[in-house]
C-alpha cells in the first residue's frame, strides 16, 4: 500500500516511537488485545483496526484518536542533538516524534486561526570565515531583530514572535537540546530544562538556534569546533562585548569581585562561568587568572552551582495564547482544543474559565 493510502499505519509507527515502545511493548500495554504481528500489519497498511482497538491503542500511546487521522505528516530536516553518549536510539527517536507532534499541533492551530507562519533567516548569506565573525553575526542578529543591547527578558517568547518554535521539556537528562528545520524552513529549538538553572536554559536555547542560523561550512564538519562556536555565539548574543566592557571596564583587570559578576548575571541572565570565560576571550583577564576562577568556582560551589539568580521568566506562551484566542472567539470548540492540546476536555475547561 502507498504511503498516501496508509495514513493510519504511518501515524501509528510515529506514535509508537514517540512513546518509546517497540511493537511488543505496545502489544503488552494492550494486555495482548492485539498481537505484535497484527500491530505490524497495521503499520504496513495490510490491516485496519476496529474502532474499539483504535481507542485502546490511543489510550496506550497517550494520543487522541484524531492523531491517527492526520494525512499530512510534518517533514523534518536533519536533527542536531546536544546529547550524552548514554542517550539511546529509542529515546532519541521518541524525542524527535514528540517535537514533530507538538509542532504539527501548533501549526494546525495557526492554520485554523489564519496566522501566517513564515521565517526569514537574518543571517542567510552572512559569511563566517573565522571565530571573530561569530560575534559580528550575533550583533547583526540583535540589530536586525531590533533588540538593541538591553537584556532579553524572555528569550523563548521573543523567538516565538520571530516565527521560531521553542519547546521546553522536563525529561531525559541525557539530552540538553536539539535543533531542526521543518521542510518549509521553520526553525525548531528544543531545550531540556530538567534540573537546570534558568541561565543555562537561556544559553542552550540560543546555542541551538545558532546551529540553525549560522553557516559554519568553513569548519568542514568539525563537530567540536561547531559546538565551541555556537557556545561563543550564545554568549555574544546574550551580552554584547560593548556592554560587558562598560560594566566591567575596558582595560585589563587583575582582580574581579564575584559581586560584580552576580549583578551582571542577575541583569542579563547569563551564568558567572560563561561571563568569566567571555572576559578571558576579551583579554580582560589572563588565562592564568581565568584558571584560578575555574578552580575557585569548583571548590566553592561545585560543578554546577553558583551564586545569584536571574529573576526573569523563560517560558513559551504562543501556543496557549492561540488556544485562548480560538476559544474566546468561538473559532475552535473545547473538544477541538482538547485534541490540539492532547489533553482531557474537562481539564481544559477548568483551565480556561470565561467571564461573561
- How many helices in DSSP terms? 16
Radius of gyration: 23 Å
Identify the strand order in the major beta sheet: 1-3-4-2
Estimated structural class: alpha+beta
Q: The biggest beta sheet, please? A: 4 strands, mixed
**So, CATH architecture of the domain at 1-73?**
Orthogonal Bundle
The rounded distance between the terminal residues' Cα atoms is 52 Å
Mean pLDDT, to the nearest integer, reads 92
Q: How many strands in all?
A: 4
Shape: elongated
Record keyword descriptors for this entry.
4-stranded mixed sheet; 356 residues; elongated; 434 Repressor (Amino-terminal Domain); 6% strand
Give an account of the 3D structure:
By secondary structure, the protein is an alpha+beta fold. Helices cover 52% and strands 6% of the residues. It has 16 helices and four strands. It has helices spanning 7-18, 23-29, 36-44, 51-61, 89-112, 132-144, 155-161, 198-213, 223-238, 241-248, 258-268, 272-281, 287-301, 318-328, 334-341, 345-351; strands spanning 80-83, 165-169, 175-181, 187-192. Strands 1-3-4-2 form a four-stranded mixed sheet, with helices on both faces. A hairpin with a 5-residue loop joins β3 (175-181) and β4. α1 packs across α3 and α12 (272-281) packs antiparallel against α13 (287-301).
